[in-house]
Design brief:
Number of helices: 7
Order of helices and strands: EEEEEEEEEEHHHHHHEEHE
CATH topology of the largest domain: Immunoglobulin-like
CATH architecture of the largest domain: Sandwich
Shape: elongated
Largest sheet: 6 strands, mixed
Strand content: 25-35%
CATH superfamily of the largest domain: ntegrin, alpha v. Chain A, domain 4
Oligomer: single chain
Radius of gyration: 28 Å
Number of domains: 3
Helix content: 25-40%
């Protein structure tokens, strides 16, 4: 069985809500094979659709919205063009919880169909809606039917429940693969990493996932090669210049600061990077992007190389 061309995730911002509250559904599509796709997200009756955002999705591809007879809504995005491997699209759907008289479970599903053909990928999530505060269970039984008390305690629920949810999911906030996008620079600051906001998100996450290995290899050729490959997408060639034609005699005496061999440049290495040219019709913008890329590459080398060494950087198109 071949590997799927996509990875699909579908989760809410909170798994427990109360009537009248806002809810956001997050859907993520990771492209692992060159293919287009069709994404369908269903909103069961009881989750009133308000709006959507899809910042990473190509502009001009608004979803089709359909209402079924049972009150369920369907949102359908279609992207027929094959996508570049490593592309990530994120979708956010804002809904409002409608009134319920008893605890109710709402199930939302995301179904992805590869185009022109392929196996369906499905993910579902469940949101539990209760008409009153969960803190009622800790009060005497006579308060369970008190509507005023139930709604009053919801004020405390709205404050404490999100904090409890964050604490329950705290490991995911520190995992580079699942941490929120806005949290990535903060995680990088723990290790003094240069996390350029212009980098694709997948590349920034890969750098954070590799940070322990990179620190173990810091100052080595392998560590520098891996770091540069993460940033540029190309594995560089690194040539270390060592002593050659080693001689020792009356004409070549040892002394402080003397390097052995002829044509020898000690503690020096060359980095050869075959980088594709930046494609843009704006000459000024192209020069700016090339200078920014070159500056970042030099920053990486300066940070990762041994302090006593020097280097030559050779960019090849």
């Amino acid at each position: 069985m071949s590997d799927p061309a996509f990875r699909l995730g579908h989760v809410p911002d909170q798994y427990q809500r109360y009537p009248g509250e806002d809810l956001t559904l997050y859907t993520r599509v990771d492209v692992t094979g060159a293919s287009g796709y069709r994404l369908q997200i269903n909103l069961p009756a009881g989750l009133r659709f308000e709006s959507y955002t899809a910042p990473d999705f190509p502009t001009g591809n608004a979803p089709q919205v359909a209402m079924l007879g049972n009150g369920e809504r369907l949102l359908l995005w279609t992207l027929a063009e094959p996508q570049e491997i490593g592309t990530r699209h994120e979708f956010q759907i804002q809904v409002v919880i409608e009134s319920v008289t008893e605890e109710t479970s709402f199930v939302s599903r995301a179904v992805l169909s590869p185009l022109p053909e392929g196996d369906l990928i499905q993910e579902s999530t469940t949101i539990i809606v209760t008409p009153g505060s969960r803190y009622l269970r800790y009060l005497p039984a006579l308060y369970e039917s008190d509507v005023l008390m139930g709604r009053f305690l919801m004020l405390f629920d709205s404050f404490w429940h999100p904090l409890e949810g964050m604490l329950n999911q705290i490991p995911e906030y520190f995992d580079p693969a699942t941490a929120p996008r806005d949290l990535l620079p903060w995680l990088a600051s723990w290790f003094q990493l240069m996390l350029d906001e212009a980098w694709p998100e997948a590349r920034r996450r890969r750098l954070l996932e590799s940070v322990v290995w990179l620190y173990r290899q810091r100052g080595t050729r392998q560590g520098l090669q891996e770091y540069l490959e993460i940033y540029t997408g190309v594995r560089p060639q690194i040539i270390e210049h060592r002593a050659r034609n080693f001689r020792l005699g009356t004409g070549n005496r040892l002394g402080f600061g003397v390097a052995m061999g002829t044509r020898n440049v000690p503690h020096t290495f060359t980095v050869i990077l075959p980088l594709p040219p930046i494609t843009t019709e704006d000459v000024i913008e192209k020069e700016r992007l090339e200078q920014a890329r070159l500056h970042t590459i030099k920053q990486i080398i300066d940070a990762e190389k041994p302090a006593h060494t020097t280097y030559h950087l050779q960019i090849e198109s």
